[in-house]
Design a protein that fits this description.
- The complex is a heterodimer.
- Helix content of chain A is about 40%, strand content about 0%.
- By secondary structure, chain A is mainly alpha-helical.
- Chain A is extended.
- Chain B has one domain: Up-down Bundle (Formate dehydrogenase/DMSO reductase fold), CATH 1.20.1630.10.
- Chain B is globular.
- Chain B starts with a helix and ends with a helix.
- The chains are: A mainly alpha, B mainly alpha.
- Chains A and B meet through helix 1 and helix 9 of A and helix 7 of B.
Amino acid sequence: MAQIFPAYANTVARAAILGAAALGCLGLGLLIALPATSHVTRQDIIVEQPVQFSHEHHVGGLGIDCRYCHTSVEQSRFAGIPPTHTCMTCHSQLWTNAEILAPVRRSLAEGVPLRWQRVHVLPDYVYFDHSVHVTNGVGCSSCHGAINRMPQVRQVAPLTMGWCLSCHRDPAPNLRPESEIFNMDWKPPSDQAERGPKLLEHYGIRSAHLTDCSRCHR
Amino acid sequence: MSGAKEGLLPEGASYGNLVGTVADPLMRRRMGRWYWGGLALALLMSLVLAGSLAWLFIEGIGIFGNNTTIVWGFPIANYVWWVGIGNAGTLISSMLLLTRQPWRAAINRFAEAMTLFAVSIAGIFPIIHLGRPYLSYWLAPYPNTMQLWPQWRSALVWDFAAIVTYLLFSVMFFYIGLIPDLATLRDRAQSRTGRVLYGIFALGWRGSARHWARHDAVYRAMAAMAVPLVVSVHSVVGLDFAAGLMPGWQETIFPPYFVVGALFSGFAMVVVLAALMRWGFGLQSLLTMRHFEAMAKIILAASVIMGISYATEWLMSWYGGERAERSFLHHQLAGSDALLYWSMIAFNVAVPQVLWLPAARRSLPVLIGVSLLINVGMWLERILIIWDTLSHGYLPSMWRPWHTSLWDWTILAGSLGFYALLFLVFARVLPVVSMHDMGKLLHEREDAG
C-alpha cells in the first residue's frame, strides 16, 4: 500500500504544534490588549461638536472659571452643560455676526438647545458623582487633563475601571487643597507625600471603603 | 489472575476478530433504521435546545421558573446532575487502570466519551443562568482593564477552575488513549479521506515497541493525576452549596457525599449506555454480563453510601439543634415537596438494594430499570437541594413556593437530546471500545495459558 503522507508531513505536524501555540498566545494577547486600546476606551478621540467651542480660548486665554458654565459641578452628580443663554451672556454683545456662532444664535432664536456630544461616556452601571470629587480634593484636571490647552476637548484618561481604582485604592497623591481644585495647571508639589495624608484627614476621607463594590455600582 | 478475567473475552477470540467486532460497525456496516431514527430524534431535541437557548438570550433569564427567593432552579440542578454523570468516565478509566481491573478494557472508551459530553453540556448551564452570559469569561483570572481579580472567596470561581481543568484533562486523557486505535482505523479505512483523517489524528503512530512504552508511561502517569481530579471536581461542586450559609447546605459532608453521588449517577448512566450499545452495535461478546455485574456491585455500594449520607444529614440537622435546620428538615421530610423527596429516597436508596440478589445483577432489564430510576432519583436530589433550601431559608418572610416554566423543561429535554446526538455521532466515528486494551487483555490471557 502506498504511503498516505509524504515525508514532509512530519515537518508540517511539528510546525502545526508550534503554530497552534503561537496562534493561541496571539489570540489571548489580543484579548488582553484590545480592551486597553483607545479603540475601546475612546481615549484621545476628538468628538465633532455642533459648535467649534474652544476651551483653550475661553479657559486658557480668557480665564473663565469652570463653574461659570458647568454650574452644578459642586452640588450635583452632573457637572452641567450650559444652556444657550450662558453663551449669550457674552455673545449677545461680542462676535454677534461671527459665522462660527451661527448655530448658537439659531438655538436661541428657535428655543432648541444645542446638541453637544458627550466626550466622557461612563457605562450606565457606574454611579459617578462630580460634586463628591470636587468637594473632597479631586481637581478637574486630575481626570480631564489640561482643558485650558485643548482647542477641542478630548478624553485624556482611559476611564477604565482599573484607572478609577488606581486613585480609589490610594487617593492621597492626587488630593489638593480647596483653593487649587479649579486650577488647570496644578501639579503635585514636591512634598505631596506629606501633604497627602493630611489632606485625607482634612476632607475626612475614609479610604478603607473607597473600593467597596457599591461605592460605584449601586 | 485468570479467574478474574474469565467471561470478559469471547472464547475463540483472536486479535483480528476483536478489532473487527469493534471497527467493522464504523467502516464496513450500514446502520439500521434504529440508528437513523434515534439520530433524527436527537437532532430534533438538539434543535429544541438551540431554539430555547436563542429565546433565552433574546428574552433573558426571566423565562426560567426561578424567582427572587429560588434564584437557582433548573439550570444549576441540571449543571450539578450533568457534572455528576461526567464524573464516572474518567474515574472508571483511571482508577480501574491503576487498580488493574481487567473489566475496565471494554467500557473505558465510551465511559470517557460520556464524561466529555456530559461535562461539556454541564458547562453550558452555569453560563446560561447568568443575566449577562457574554461576560462569563470574567470568572477567569486574566490581566484586565478593571484591575480586578475574581472573588477568590467565591465557590463559583473554584467551580470554574475545577470544571475547566477537568474538561481539558478529560479531553487529553481521552485522546491519548485513542491514538493507537486511531492508527488501527487509519490502516483499516476503506476511503482515502478516512485514511487521511484518521492518519492525521493518529500522529504517525506505528506501533513500535518504543511507541508503546512511551504511551504506556504517559497514560499511566495521567491516570494517576486523574484520580485526584475526579475527586476534586465534584467536591468543589459540593462546596458551591456547602460554602453557602443556608440551612441544608452548610454541611461538611457535602464534598464526599457529592463525589459518591456523582459516581452513582455516572455508573448508572454507563450501564444504560453500555446496554444500548451492546444491542446496537452487536458487542455482546465484548460487553459481557461480567461487566454489568461488576458495575452493579459498584452501584449497590454507592447507594448504601448515599443512604448513610442522607441519614447523616437528618441526624446532624436534629443533633445540631439549630431552629432553622430542624425546621428545614421537617420541611424536607413532610413539607410540600415531601413526595419528591421520598421518591428520591426510594430511587436512590431503596430500589438499588435489589442488587444484593445475584440474579438481579445478572438481569439486564432489572439493571437498566434500576439505573434509569437512579438517574431520575439523582436529578431529584439535585433539584431538591436547591428548591428545599432556597424556599425554606432562615427568613420565613422570604419563603416562597417554586414553580417550573416550559423553558426549564425544554432546555433539560434538549440537553438530553444533544447528549444523545453527540453520542450517536461519536459511535459512528470512533471505536466505542478500546481495541488496544482488549488486545492487551487477550495477550495476557494467552500468556497465562
